[in-house]
Write a structure and sequence with these properties.
The complex is a heterodimer. Chain A is mainly α. Chain A contains ten helices and no strands. Chain B is α/β, with parallel strands linked by helices. Classes of the chains: A mainly alpha, B alpha/beta. Chains A and B meet through helix 7 and helix 8 of A and helix 2, strand 6 and helix 4 of B.
């Protein structure tokens, strides 16, 4: 071993499947774009329609504020009740679904339940519940509870699966019963993340609760849809502004909640 | 079982553990642990020291063999019997395994979890004598002023002291320690070993300690067990542990002297 010969080194060999995938994506994008038939003439006509629509929106009309307030109140109820119910069901469900704590015959069905809850958009679930329990807020609450279980359950499960098992092992070694192992070995490790996820879900439910009303599941969405159909665009504008206001207030509140628990 | 005062505190009989079928890590270990003193288990990495310790309180399930403790075979206990047995066996871990986000006091009190209902445990409603004892233990290990600190705010040596306090909080009849000093600096290691030996002597609790460091084993143990290839190849007092045995335990010989340097 006298003279050193050059030994070639590259970070990674050329990844031809990845390059091919990028090419396919680019071709598809161009194809899809060509189907939009976005011509300059159509764009100009659209600008005109947009102008007329915006002009009708303003000024917003708050004269029917009682109707508006009733819708907002119902949306808020739907969001909060669905979040709390979803949270209460998600806690045990995620414990059952965590593969590091449960045998697969327990975790598998729990995970399946969450996948099913997550596979439909809240509005589709809301349609089902409107058919099942009739028009009104109850359908909205049930629909968003199911959606919350799907998402909170998944996020909680992942948080539990990422904990340090060493801490759990130490608590288990003291001879603690199962629920105490959970209370001391698991909960402290996931608590602050759970608070974050729950407040995120409340935020998301607040948004979704304004939408389930469109299919008759209660809340401000129904009022909004009706106003659209009657071409009451100034009232539509009032509703939209109120929803934005509610979402902002909700965000401030959930941030405050997070801050309180982070201490 | 009152007449067994002369018997061993722990009797391990033909213990076998194979993580992979046909490749046992522990190959028929038989050991009697006397009711007091520190037994150090030494041996090369991967020879099953941790597995042996963990088989005793069944954090690792033994493949076959018997482990007799308090007149019962731990290997065949069902879940609730096992929990009852674990209450009597304190354990100290290499990486302390404290619940990081709980306070020092909560960690120490968690040694009583086997005796407290989950509901009371959840509400941190421990009996007053337990709280008093937890404070007394914190006094002993010198951490009283950190009682309300979160465990992850402590240094390694402090954490291990909490780990020892937690184990003793169980009022155990046996103390297991899995590499308790491997994550600590030499000075802290000596302090931790001193603490473990003294507390184990004062309270008459036999201790089984896995340890990498042969010098620490010699200094603190009353008995040394050398494992190699999943079997006991040395069992005797620290004085009897000659270089010949060390070669047999760890293999090779150059590492014992510095002639080649």
């Amino acid at each position: 071993m006298t003279a050193t010969t050059d030994r070639s080194w590259v970070v990674a060999p050329a990844n031809w499947p990845a390059r091919f995938a990028w090419l396919v994506f680019a071709v598809y994008f161009a194809y899809a774009l060509s189907h939009l038939e976005l011509t300059p003439a159509r764009f100009l006509a659209g600008l005109d329609y947009g102008h007329k629509f915006l002009a009708k929106l303003f000024p917003p009309d708050f004269q029917r504020w009682e109707l508006l307030l009733k819708g907002l109140k119902e949306s808020l109820e739907i969001a909060i009740l669905a979040s709390v119910l979803g949270l209460v069901i998600s806690l045990p469900a995620s414990l059952l679904a965590a593969r590091n704590l449960m045998p697969s015959w327990v975790s598998w069905p729990a995970r399946m339940l969450m996948v099913v809850c997550r596979s439909f958009h809240p509005v589709i679930i809301a349609i089902l519940f409107v058919k099942a329990v009739g028009f009104g807020a109850l359908a909205g609450i049930l629909a968003l509870t199911v959606a919350s279980l799907g998402f909170l359950g998944k996020l909680f499960t992942e948080a539990i699966e990422e904990i340090s098992l060493k801490q759990v092992e130490a608590v288990r070694a003291t001879g603690a019963p199962f629920m105490s192992v959970i209370a001391y070995g698991v909960v402290p490790q996931v608590f602050s993340r759970f608070i974050g996820f729950a407040s995120y879900e409340l935020d998301s439910n607040l948004r979704n609760s304004t939408m389930v009303g469109i299919v008759g599941a209660g809340g401000i969405g129904g009022t909004l849809f009706a106003a659209f159909q009657r071409f009451d665009y100034d009232f539509v504008c009032a509703i939209i502004l109120s929803i934005i206001g509610m979402i902002i207030v909700g965000e401030v509140l959930t941030n405050a909640v997070k801050k309180v628990f982070r201490a | 079982m009152t007449q067994n005062t002369h018997q061993a505190a722990l009797a391990i009989r033909s213990l076998v553990k194979a993580y992979v079928r046909g490749k046992p890590v522990l190959n028929g270990i038989t050991l009697d642990i006397s009711p007091n003193g520190v037994t150090a288990i030494i041996g090369p990495s991967g020879t099953g020291k941790s597995t042996l310790i963990r088989c005793i309180n069944r954090l690792v399930e033994p493949t076959s063999g018997e482990i007799i403790f308090e007149g019962r075979n731990l290997v065949t206990l069902n879940r609730s019997e096992l929990r009852a047995a674990r209450r009597q066996i304190g354990m100290v871990f290499q990486e302390y395994n404290l619940v990081e986000r709980l306070t020092v006091m909560e960690n120490v009190l968690s040694g009583r979890l086997g005796y407290v209902s989950p509901f009371k445990a959840w509400l941190r409603r421990f009996a007053q004598p337990d709280v008093n004892e937890a404070y007394a233990l914190l006094d002993t290990v010198g951490l009283t002023m950190h009682a309300q600190a979160r465990a992850d705010a402590l240094s390694g040596g402090q954490r291990q002291r909490v780990g020892i306090a937690r184990a003793l909080m169980q009022r155990p009849k046996l103390l297991l320690a899995d590499e308790p000093t491997s994550s600590l600096d030499p000075k802290t290691s000596v302090e931790i070993m001193t603490l473990m030996r003294d507390l184990s002597n004062q309270r008459g609790i036999p201790a089984i300690v896995n340890i990498h460091n042969v010098e620490l084993a010699r200094r603190f143990a009353t008995r040394i067990v050398g494992l190699s290839g999943g079997a006991v190849v040395f069992d005797g007092t620290p004085d009897a542990l000659s270089d010949t045995y060390l070669k047999q335990i760890y293999g090779g010989e150059n590492w014992l002297d510095d002639r080649d340097n």
